[in-house]
Amino acid sequence: MIEGGCLCGTVRFAIEAFVGPFELCHCTRCRKASGSAFVAGIGVRGADFRWLSGYQEIRRYEAPILERSPGYQVAFCGRCGSPAPYYEERDEWLEVAAGLLDDDPGMRPDRHIFIECGSSWYTIRDELPQLTKIDVIRMRQAARK
């Protein structure tokens, strides 16, 4: 079991297992939401996630839909502003920002995604696959089949 939480410690959660993917997203919205070059997000099954404290302090923002549903959603601690998982009991899957974890998740990033949106001041220097929006769409469509 790995725990994680926000900067002030109000929001706390535990994760039994990580299933991935572990993606480094360079899309404009992730960059804006994180204030960084990318968001490092790890996939988790809803059944492997549980809230420990602070759920009532989480605030959410849903950005307007740009192309098609679902829209872009972010969750954050209402006290310190740290990102928080966007999860409700009915969700089968969620993504957790890796920076919120207290310990090593036992996974490493799989790929960079939405690289065409990347910031001009950051250069990818690793050997991970670099996927464009079109590549991501194709990959996710193939996974659903």
Number of beta strands: 11
Run of helices and strands = EEEHEEEEEEEEH
CATH class: Mainly Beta
How many structural domains are formed by the residues?
A: 1
**Average pLDDT taken over every residue:** 93
Q: Structural class of the helix and strand makeup?
A: alpha+beta
- CATH architecture, please? Beta Complex
| Anisotropy-based shape | globular
Assign the CATH topology: Metal Binding Protein, Guanine Nucleotide Exchange Factor, Chain A
Distance between the termini: 31 Å
Please state the CA-atom Rg, rounded to the nearest Å.
15 Å
Helix content: 10-25%
Poorly predicted spans: none
Largest β sheet strand count, sense and barrel closure: 5 strands, mixed
Q: In which order are the strands of the major sheet placed?
A: 9-4-3-10-11
Number of helices: 2
% residues in beta strands: 25-35%
What order do the helices and strands come in, and which of them pair?
Blueprint: E1 2-5, E2 12-15, E3 22-25, H1 28-34, E4 39-45, E5 49-53, E6 58-62, E7 73-77, E8 83-84, E9 93-97, E10 111-113, E11 130-131, H2 133-144
Parallel strand pairs: 3-10, 10-11
Antiparallel strand pairs: 1-2, 2-5, 3-4, 4-9, 6-7, 7-8
